[in-house]
From TrEMBL:
Pathway(s) where this gene product acts: Lipid metabolism; fatty acid beta-oxidation
EC number: 4.2.1.17
Species classification: Bacteria, Pseudomonadati, Pseudomonadota, Alphaproteobacteria, Rhodobacterales
Stretches with biased composition (Basic and acidic residues): 593-602
Biological source species: Arenibacterium halophilum
Stated name of the protein: enoyl-CoA hydratase
């Protein structure tokens, strides 16, 4: 990636006027170049809505009459070319209405593709979904440094629906195109250039020259040679078979129909662009009506709802982290990457060095440019002398999970923190009620519970207690959103929300091992349900020592108990067999790997024993007011644990299934009171 001082955005100060009769487009004509600037009204992000396409249709007719030397499509938004289709429009769109809307959209993009003069899309920043399809309908694509392009529709249980399946597989190596669509991953600037998605990659200051080159025919291309080689059905079938096999391992057809519909679409129709476009519309419409897509679209809105909980200024520019372990180091690295000035302390110098190395790896994984990575590292300051304590707007305590240790830290902060600074604890198992008396100012003390690894797990629980001020909680939620995480507002209680609901999953599995169940069968049954990790594997991942502590702490304050911990588990921990971090736990990592493939024919009684106690715990959390509503619980479990998103979350799953209380009663008769349905089921509705 070119290291330049230019901002990696278009000329956002364009003074082009709104196009006549358009709310979402600006029009500019100069020296034979007609530029249409996409500038969706009343939002900072472009989305491809029905109104955007309708206005573009009219502008293309006008452009055809004007006959410019070149038509350029750009975005006036500094954040990117476009974030995809308008998902709000999907919520109630079904059947014939969806099909008619897709046909209209295809007609507009086909009109763009057929214009009798060169067309160029200049793409920067986020260019996804429908916005990417708009760019693909142009003759050429010029990428500005830092651009990322992709089709994330698979994450909504869909595939591209505005011609993207056809145009991308004809533009570049079809197998590479299919991989992009099947995984939902983005192609970042240099990768997009090497694949042939963009014809040129330039800094903003060279965009005009690149447009001139495209207009003069110096960027013309003949399409993908590999696409020609795979024009026969037989050749595509070989590649499609491999794709299905790989997709089945990651996303089984019975739960995720979209990848397989996409593979079928390309295999059956990839040799004929017109047929494939028609089939794309049919396939997309069928998928949109599926339960999987509707649940995944709901998950999209759950994400938006969590984000909305943090919409305000946080007043936090300097963050100080106490504790440079794996969690504290990730929090510090992530906050610095998101623009905060961060100081981090530890009682030992070694973890501070590890924090910088960890941050460097995170920034590489997140595709930061050399300049942006350097700037983030400049904001991340090891602070062995603890100078940041007195200067920070927010102090995040990420010390050991021991009350006495945390109380000692808080005592040192009492006369050190700025008067308006906030102290947040990252505790995952200790009650805030037990810590608040030691805090310098109870009103400006709360929980900020991140999930490991912070760079991958989007959820943060913002934990309140009786003495926390509303301003403190609002600022912490805003801080969470400001560092591109999702705040779930919860109240103090055993395990808060996520750990309270997740704990029965692991603890029941451990008890089932004690009964003689096979660990691999348990894990594979959970994977078949759609969990991202089996409970036995998860217990090893978390650490058996932590599981023991979580079980102990939860048993103190719950109406419905979790499974008892077998004596052999304590003995394992005492012998140092604490899980993956020790190389041995419930699995021996020197000689066996936990299963990654779901069971073909899982035992549904095993699944019910693992999953339904989580649903029961979710109802208890809702009844006790630990979470404000069912949507928050479902969202927190999906974004905090990866809980089978295509099922919509534990409460949505229970709502659809309907028989959960009855099955819990039968399990209680057989296995004990930990399965007794919570009283809150009567009010769930």
């Amino acid at each position: 990636m070119t290291d330049v001082l230019d901002e990696i955005t278009p000329d956002e100060s364009t003074k082009a006027p709104k196009a006549p009769g358009a709310l979402n487009w600006r029009r500019e004509e100069q020296n034979g170049t007609l530029t249409l600037w996409l500038d969706c009204a009343d939002t900072g992000t472009n989305v491809i809505s029905e109104a955007v396409l309708r206005e573009l249709d009219t502008l293309l007719d006008d452009g055809k009459q004007a006959r410019p030397d070149v038509l350029v499509i750009r975005s006036a938004k500094p954040g990117g070319f476009g974030a995809g289709a308008d998902i709000d429009g999907f919520e109630n769109l079904r059947g014939k209405d969806a099909k008619a809307m897709l046909h209209q959209g295809h007609a507009v993009l086909d009109k763009l593709a057929a214009l009798p003069f060169p067309t160029v899309a200049v793409v920067h920043g986020t260019t996804l979904g429908g916005a990417f399809e708009l760019a693909l309908a142009c003759d050429h694509r010029i990428g500005v440094d830092g651009v990322k392009l992709g089709f994330p529709e698979i994450q909504l249980g869909l595939h591209p629906g505005l011609g993207g399946t056809v145009r991308l597989t004809n533009l570049i190596d079809p197998v590479e195109a299919m991989q992009l669509m099947l995984t939902g991953r983005s192609a970042y600037d240099r990768r997009a250039k090497s694949l042939g998605i963009i014809d040129a990659l330039v800094p903003e200051r060279h965009v005009a020259a690149a447009i001139a080159a495209a207009a003069s025919g110096k960027m013309d291309h003949d399409g993908s040679l590999r696409a020609s080689a795979l024009r026969t059905r037989a050749a595509r079938s070989l590649a499609a078979t491999r794709m299905r096999s790989e997709s089945e391992k990651k996303a089984p057809r019975r739960h995720f129909p979209a990848p397989f519909a996409l593979i079928d679409l390309w295999e059956d129709h990839g040799g004929d662009a017109d047929d494939m476009q028609t089939a794309e519309i049919e396939s997309f419409t069928t998928l949109l009506d599926s339960t999987t897509a509707q649940n995944l679209i709901r998950v999209f809105f759950l994400r938006q709802r969590l984000k909305a909980a943090g919409k305000r200024e946080d007043g936090i520019s300097h963050v100080h982290v106490i504790g440079a372990g794996a969690m504290g180091g990730e929090i510090a690295a992530w906050a610095a990457m998101q623009g905060k000035r961060v100081t981090i302390e530890d009682v030992d110098l070694t973890p501070l060095g590890k924090t910088i190395r960890r941050a460097t790896r995170i920034y590489e994984r997140k595709h930061l440019s050399g300049i942006k990575s350097r700037d983030a590292l400049d904001r991340l300051i090891p602070d062995p002398d603890r100078l940041g304590r007195a200067r920070a707007d927010l102090i995040i305590e990420a010390g050991p999970e021991k009350t006495a240790v945390k109380e000692a830290i808080y005592a040192e902060l009492t006369n050190t923190m700025k008067p308006d600074a906030i102290l947040a604890t990252n505790t995952s198992s200790l009650s805030l009620a037990a810590l608040v008396d030691a805090a310098p100012d109870p009103a400006r003390f709360a929980g900020l519970h991140f999930f490991n690894p912070v760079s991958s797990m989007p959820l943060v629980e913002v934990v309140s207690h009786d003495l926390a001020s509303q301003d403190t909680l609002d600022r912490l939620a805003a801080f969470t959103t400001g560092i591109d995480r999702l705040p779930a507002r919860v109240t103090d209680g055993p395990g808060f929300l996520v750990n309270r609901v997740l704990a029965p999953y692991m603890m029941e599995a451990i008890l089932m091992l004690d009964e003689g169940h096979d660990k691999v069968a348990i894990d594979r049954a959970a994977l078949a349900f759609g969990m991202p990790m089996g409970p036995v594997t998860l217990a090893d991942q978390v650490g058996l020592d932590i599981c023991l502590e979580v079980g102990r702490s939860l048993r103190k304050g719950l109406d419905t108990p979790v499974a008892e911990t077998p004596d052999w588990l304590r003995e394992k921990v005492e012998n140092g067999e604490t899980g993956k971090k020790a190389g041995k736990g419930l699995y021996d990592y020197d000689s066996e790997d936990p299963p990654k493939e779901p069971a073909d024919d899982p035992d549904h009684q095993v699944i019910d024993r693992l999953i339904l106690p989580m649903c029961n715990a979710a109802v208890e959390v809702l009844r006790k007011g630990v979470a404000p509503d069912a949507d928050t619980i479902d969202a927190a479990m999906i974004f905090g644990t990866g809980w089978a998103p295509f099922r919509g979350g534990p409460l949505q799953y229970a709502k659809v299934r309907r028989d959960v209380p009855d099955v819990l009663r039968r399990l209680a008769e057989k296995h004990g009171p930990r399965f007794e349905p919570d009283p809150g089921w009567n009010d769930l509705g």
